[in-house]
Sequence to fold (130 residues):
Amino acid sequence: QVQLVESGGGSVQAGGSLRLSCAVSGDSSSRYCMGWFRFRQAPGAERDKVAVIDTDRSTSYADSVKGRFTISKDNAKNTLYLQMNRLKSEDTAMYYCAADRSWRCSGGYLIGRIVDLNYWGQGTQVTVSS
Fold:
């Protein structure tokens, strides 16, 4: 059973940086399509894609974070990362790491619905103050 544990969230001022980590246990991260997703506290809100990384390290990003966030994976450490720079108040959310079998990714893009991803971490809160 794959388990995911996020860390690295916190409070930061607008323009600052944070790096989120997601430790993978139970299997090798190299086998999985993985990504970061966020959930804003708002009526009707859903988990939105932030970034996805394929098993061949190809990536995709939400338009709102392109050029500011970088997703990466260290398979030797079985850890997924999200480097977040030039943070904005609208980046405030609970951030989740998620994973599924490699077929759920193609060219760095997620296939199918976010909600159907098989493995999720518990989330880590990011709060950006302006």
DSSP finds no helices and 13 strands in the chain. The longest strand covers residues 93-101.
